[in-house]
Amino acid sequence: xxxxxxxxxxxxxxxxxxxxAFAQATGEDQSAAQCAAGEINGISxxxxxxxxxxxxxxxxxxxxPANGSSYRVDMGxxxxxxxxxxxxxxxxxxxxxxxxxxxDIEEVAIAAPRIGETVATGKPFESTAGVDxxxxxENRKFAGKKRDGESLYGGGLYGMTILNGEGEDNGAGxxxxxxxxxxxxxxxxSGFFNFEHPFMAGFSxxxxxxxxxxxxxxxxxGGLAYVGFSDGSYSYDSKExxxxxxxxxxxxxxxxxxxxFRSYQNRLTIEARxxxxxxxxxxxxxxxxxxxxxxxAYAVPVMINVTFLMPN
Length: 312
Description:
alpha+beta, Double Stranded RNA Binding Domain, Porin, four-stranded mixed sheet, 4 helices, 14 strands
């Protein structure tokens, strides 16, 4: 009889060991919100334990135990894809669940921080996406290109003025862009022109550095540009004594701005540019006997452009 009791006790102890080991693997901590594995189907125990640990860590690091919720992580496989579901359980309330479709189990490492943010804040899972944390099923056509880069083209409008010019008017024109964009950098070319006074037209070779890989990313950039411009102070009733500056020169430019909707196929860019010509502009005075262009002035064209970019 004692032998049978010992065998039964040993069997019960052995049956408890996997649960204890799994609780240790998932990092269950009584001082943190409770999170554990639920139903696991079609996924190996080692992969499931690591996946649940990542998801539970992302959740418990963002929520307070005082909120009274516990969390259960279910995982299953449908063909090649994995379905991960997090259930939020709170006494007296209907259970809430979040399901995420993953192309493979390794994508849990990418999705876990977003799952934790969604569970903690109530944001839609889609709103936590950035250019560096998309899961493949969110955008089959696009996500595979994010790591290597993508070609974009588009255009928009700009407003401009000329600092240290001779006029007080502002101009407007059209700008077109083509660029190859990666999560952290972009390089391309652009062209622009306007025929209003003051006049400006040119083209540039562009580079930009993004300071964030989120949907709304500030950037700084610059490049080389060839710009022609003219700006003057005209009396309209008589050209006698009118002054203007004129230049057509290679130079550099610096820029700054931000780009929005970067995890989408189409995006919006707002950019300010200051062109720095390598040669000064001619400063001329008009007269009945001709123009006197003996002086020079260092005039700086400045533009603010709004462009809409789309995949090539």
